[in-house]
Amino acid sequence: MLQINNLHKSYKDFKVLDGLYMKINKGDIYGFLGKNGCGKTTTMNIVCNIIPKDKGEIILGDDGTNKIKEIEGYCDISVNNLGTSIVSTSDALYMIQGNNMKKISNDSVSKMVYAPNANVVYYVKDDTLYVNNGSEKKVASLDGPISNLTVSNDGSAAAWIETDESERDEETGYYKTTTYGYKGGKAVKTGKKFKTSIEEFGFAQ
User: Fold this and answer.
1) Per-residue pLDDT, 73
2) What DSSP designation does 174 have?
3) Residue 200's pLDDT band (cuts 50, 70, 90)
4) What digits encode the pLDDT tens for the residues 114-130?
5) Pair type for strands 146-151 and 157-168
6) What angle do CA 131, 117, 184 make, to 5 degrees?
7) d(C-alpha 32, C-alpha 34), whole Å
8) Residue 91: CB partners within 8 Å, gap ≥ 6?
9) Is 199 helix (H, G, I), strand (E, B) or coil?
């Protein structure tokens, strides 16, 4: 559950948010509609602690009465279909179930992808890909930047593309990329081609 109480935000004399109230219950799906400058992006940036609020309260929890944690600095939040949240901050990674917030990594992470139907998250830190279901496990050491990190619904498998920036095709200008798969606790190469690093390779559950 996400609840916003009396949220205010102004940029000098321009008032973007003037006492916004909002409550989103578990399982609800909301979309923001409105003209440019009405506060859609500003609201989400405040919820994620990307920008500070002038006044108001952001509550994350099951009942609208318990504030789980005040987080300082940048925050990235991902929620799976089970209602469990993963919160990545500038210095830690948290898993939230109901009003229980558990730190599952003591470091900042990037490329975070949550399994849709399981409490499993994959992420990158220190040039290494990890999987975490409450405890952290190394998946693979990375030799270059990765893209297209895709996770199966139950979190048991993943696929990604690594880009070798030291090797480039003279004719096309594309960097060499290698595709990898992870399943059964083992990471293996599944292909090597000269491709754009953003090209979709597909993924089988």
Assistant:
1) 54
2) P
3) very low
4) 888 898 999 998 889 99
5) antiparallel
6) 45
7) 7
8) 73, 106, 107, 108
9) coil
Residues 76 and 158: their CA atoms lie apart, in Å, by 21
Give CA–CA dist 80/86, Å, rounded: 8
**Cα dist. 167→58, 136, 150, 154, 189 in Å?**
47, 32, 24, 35, 18
Instruction: Report the pLDDT value the prediction gives residue 140, as an integer from 0 to 100.
Output: 93
Lookup: tokens for 114 = 């949550």
* The token pair that represents 186 in the structure block: 């083992």
Lowest pLDDT segment from 1-5, 17-21, 38-42: 1-5
* Per-residue buried b or exposed e for 46-83, using 16+ beta carbons within 10 Å of the residue's own CB: bbebeeebeebebbbbbeeeeebeebeeeebbeebeee
Question: Has residue 202 got a pLDDT over 70?
Answer: no
CA 196 to chain centre: 23
- 158 membership: H or E segment, kind and range: strand 157-168
Per residue in 137-164, pLDDT tens? 999 998 888 888 889 889 999 989 888 7
Is 70 a residue whose pLDDT tops 80?
A: no
